[in-house]
From TrEMBL:
GO biological processes: DNA recombination; DNA repair
Free-text comment about domains: Has three domains with a flexible linker between the domains II and III and assumes an 'L' shape. Domain III is highly mobile and contacts RuvB.
Domain Helix-hairpin-helix DNA-binding motif class: 72-91, 107-126
Region (Domain III): 147-194
Species name: Capnocytophaga cynodegmi
Family affiliation: Belongs to the RuvA family.
A Gene Ontology molecular function term of the record: hydrolase activity
Subunit: Homotetramer. Forms an RuvA(8)-RuvB(12)-Holliday junction (HJ) complex. HJ DNA is sandwiched between 2 RuvA tetramers; dsDNA enters through RuvA and exits via RuvB. An RuvB hexamer assembles on each DNA strand where it exits the tetramer. Each RuvB hexamer is contacted by two RuvA subunits (via domain III) on 2 adjacent RuvB subunits; this complex drives branch migration. In the full resolvosome a probable DNA-RuvA(4)-RuvB(12)-RuvC(2) complex forms which resolves the HJ.
Entries under SUPFAM superfamilies matching the protein: DNA helicase RuvA subunit, C-terminal domain, Nucleic acid-binding proteins, RuvA domain 2-like
Localization per record: Cytoplasm
NCBIfam families: ruvA
Record gene name: ruvA
Lineage of producing organism: Bacteria, Pseudomonadati, Bacteroidota, Flavobacteriia, Flavobacteriales
Superkingdom, taxonomy of origin: Bacteria
Protein name, per record: Holliday junction branch migration complex subunit RuvA
Length: 194
């Protein structure tokens, strides 16, 4: 199995890269987080997962071992394929997915396009114990997430704002607030900044 690739970056796109390793070009599917963390420099290193099926051998690449580990664990859940796992890791960070699973945060997992309530619950049920055992995460809190923040993000999504953009604005609002801030106040301030 190919576990990592290090070589010259030939082509870089939001969904894939081509890496030249000793004269062989590898087509590697990536997440948006990996895309944004890749340097534009010539040489890169990706941690990979090779998925072998009857009709294809597909490489998936990640900027961190932690992201690859989450990807592999997501593949073990019934109903979650490689594309769904990659979409989850493009929408949420690996640390956010781990935190959501450990805390039973169905709303965060369900916020990913293509993930329904049943799949979100199955992911949490199947992976909760495995996520707690993972050692490769630096600053994932095991406390419950800020529910006001999550509710505000869900409301902004319903209003048509992109989650990633909304999350950045809402994070700034919550950090700058002195003490607890209501869902309504978060939404009001976010609408002024979006």
């Amino acid at each position: 199995m190919i576990t990592q690739l290090q070589g010259k970056l030939v082509e870089k796109n939001p969904t894939y890269v081509i890496i030249d390793c000793g004269g062989v070009g590898y087509f590697v599917n990536i997440t948006l987080h990996t895309f944004s963390s890749l340097p534009d420099s010539e040489f890169i290193k990706l941690y990979t997962h090779l998925q072998i099926k009857e009709d294809s051998h597909t490489l998936y690449g990640f900027s961190t071992k932690a992201e690859r580990e989450i990807f592999v664990l997501l593949l073990s859940v019934s109903g979650v394929g490689a594309n769904t796992a990659r979409t989850m890791l493009s929408s949420l960070t690996a640390a956010h997915i781990r935190s959501a699973i450990i805390n039973g945060d169905v709303v965060s997992i369900q916020s990913v396009k293509g993930i329904g309530a049943k799949t979100a619950q199955r992911v949490i049920l199947d992976l909760k114990e495995k996520m707690v055992k993972l050692q490769d995460f630096e600053d994932v809190s095991l406390t419950t997430p800020n529910t006001n923040k999550e509710e505000a993000l869900a409301a902004l999504e319903v209003l048509g704002f992109a989650r990633k953009q909304s999350e950045k604005v809402v994070d700034k609002i919550v950090k700058s607030a002195s003490g607890e801030i209501s869902v309504e106040e978060i939404i009001k301030q976010a609408l002024k900044n979006l």
